[in-house]
Design brief:
By secondary structure, this protein is an alpha+beta fold. The protein has a domain of 111 residues: Umud Fragment, subunit A (Ribbon). It is built from 3 helices and 9 strands; from the N terminus they run αβββββββββαα. A 9-stranded antiparallel β-sheet has the order 1-2-3-4-9-5-6-7-8. The longest helix is centred in the last third of the chain and has 52 residues. The two termini are 51 Å apart.
Length: 195
């Protein structure tokens, strides 16, 4: 593979990552719901998993697509519980172990066993998990993440475009110089034939 092809492949990969990141970030920003403090799409919210307490079934850095219009959670499903603390609303995902009348028994953390949660404390039931999207969303909320996923790729893409433009201009000048030299040589040889 030539160096030019390698750079072209790297450029395409960089552009795809940048565009995908920009689309995801834009969708998350435009769909942000202040009531739930997370992205909302119709009757679904996107909750980032920030701890590894649910591992291996739900991994840290995943995003849970959760249904707000649920009727009842079943055993084994993950419910989203809203907990208010000093930093705002924190969502906690827990696995339903038992369904009782008026409450659910949900799995606890490592240091804490199962506990009861009133059914009206549950805001959503998780329907699907997207690996890595939660980490991306959390990174994009920080200045560092925005810098890494948006600013740096944008600067690199712009620099590559400028370099490509300069190289095209240089190639055009070289080609014009070569063509004018060839034209001079052709004119000189035609003049010699006339003499």
């Amino acid at each position: 593979m030539t160096r030019k092809k390698i750079f072209k492949i790297l450029y395409i990969i960089l552009v795809v990552i940048f565009v995908a990141s920009a689309i995801v970030t834009t969708a998350m920003i435009l769909s942000f719901d202040k009531q739930y403090a997370c992205p909302r799409f119709g009757s679904y919210i996107l909750v980032s998993v920030n701890d590894s307490e649910l591992s291996p079934k739900v991994l840290k850095g995943s995003a849970l697509i959760s249904d707000l219009d649920y009727n009842q959670a079943e055993n084994g499903e993950y419910v989203i519980i809203a907990a208010k603390n000093s930093s705002g609303v924190q969502y906690v995902a827990r696995e339903v172990q038992r369904v009782e009348e008026g409450y659910y028994t949900v799995a606890g953390t490592e240091g804490r066993g199962s506990f009861y949660v009133a059914k009206d404390s549950i805001i959503a039931v998780s329907k699907m998990q997207i690996y890595g999207l939660g980490a991306h969303i959390n990174m994009m909320r920080t200045q560092t993440g925005f810098f890494i996923f948006v600013i740096i790729p944008l600067v690199i893409v712009i620099m590559i475009q400028i370099i490509r433009m300069v190289m095209l201009i240089q190639e055009k000048k070289i080609k014009e110089k070569y063509e004018s030299k060839m034209q001079m040589n052709a004119d000189n040889s035609a003049n010699k034939e006339d003499v």
